[in-house]
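Folding follows sequence. Below is one example:
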Amino acid sequence: MASEFRFDDARSVSPRITSGRDWRNANLVGFSIHVLQCFRSRKLTEFSPHQTRLERNGAGYMGRRAPDFMRANSDWFRGIELKYGPDGGVFVADWTDLGECHDRDGIHRSSGRIYKIVYGPAPALKKFDLHDRSNAELVQLQLHRNDWYVRHARRILWERASDGQNMKSARVALLKMYATNPDVTRKLRALWALNLIGGYDRKWLAQQDDN
C-alpha cells in the first residue's frame, strides 16, 4: 500500500477523495503494470482505478496521470488489488467496506466482491492448462503479447527444472531466442527463463556485459 497523503482521520478527507478532484489525497492500494495489448498501467484507489502512463525518464520511468476510465457507484467500494488474466481482462478485488483503512465498527469478512474489466467484447477462451504444454511450447510462449502467458510458462519451466527434468532442449531454444531475437524485451524474457532453469553459468553471463 502506498499513500500520497498522510492523515489521522481518514473520514475528514474522504469528501475530497470521492470528488475525484484531488487524487493525490487518496490511498493508493494495489499496483499493476499490464504487459499486454488491452490496458496500460493502473493504480486502484478508493473509488476508481487511476490510469498512469509510464514515460521514459533517464534510466527510469515517470508516471503521468491519465483520465480515470472507471468510477464506482457505491460508497462501499474499496478496491484492493488488480490482476490480469489470459484474455487481457482485469480482475478487481473489492473489499466492500465503509472503513477507509481500519474499520471502527468491526471488519466485514463476507461482503467482498470481484469485478472484471474488459476492453470491448471479451474474447472467448476455451478451457486450457499450460501444464499440458511441452517445454518447446512453453519456450515459444516467452514471445506472447500477453505477459500472463509469459510468466506462467516461465514458472512451469522453472518447476520442471526444479523437479529434475531434462531441460537441454529448452535451454538451447532459449539461448537461440536470446541470440537472434531483435527485440530487447524478448531477449530479457529468454534470459529470465534461462536463469530459472539453470541455463547458463557465470562465465557465459559475464560475457554478456557488453551486450
